[in-house]
Design brief:
Helices cover about 20% and strands about 25% of the residues. The protein has 2 helices and 7 strands; from the N terminus they run ββαββββαβ. The longest helix is centred in the middle third of the chain and has 15 residues. The chain starts with about 35 loop residues before the first strand and ends in a 5-residue tail after the last strand.
């Protein structure tokens, strides 16, 4: 199990940024038939992405193809416990993908709506944001 993280980055540490607003792009199902769309803003860690991907692949089995539409390219830092104020910013703890409402983070193709629903329901429990199922064609 290899965790997602950038091979190299321009800067080691970055600002927190802000989570206001809707997704700027990646808000439509582009590769598969069904997608898992984020409905609340947040950070998704590399571990959460991997856990959700595994959960989806267990449901989808051999039939379907999974597309992961997010990549954790934002470093987050943490100071050691019981450290006094000052002494600069903490070390890089891990990598997150910043997601805003509307962003499609996973897509599946080649499976029925029932299987997609089940797969995304399992994946939803691994994530720290609210999600909903969306499809390329409007669901009847």
């Amino acid at each position: 199990m290899s965790m997602l993280s950038p091979k190299r980055s321009k800067f080691r540490k970055s600002h927190k940024g802000h989570l206001a607003g809707k997704a700027k792009g990646g808000n439509e199902v582009s590769f598969g038939d069904y997608g898992l769309q984020v409905t609340s803003p947040g950070w998704i860690t590399a571990r959460q992405i991997e856990a959700a991907r595994v959960a989806i692949s267990r449901s989808v089995k051999k039939f379907g193809k999974i597309h992961v539409r997010v990549f954790p390219d934002h470093p987050y830092t943490k100071k050691p416990a019981e450290t006094r104020m000052g002494t600069g910013k903490g070390g890089v703890e891990g990598w997150v993908a910043v997601v805003r409402p509307g962003r499609v983070i996973f897509e599946v193709e080649g499976v029925s709506l029932e299987i997609a629903k089940e797969a995304f329901h399992r994946a939803h429990h691994k994530l720290s944001v609210k999600t909903q199922l969306v499809s390329r064609e409007p669901v009847l």
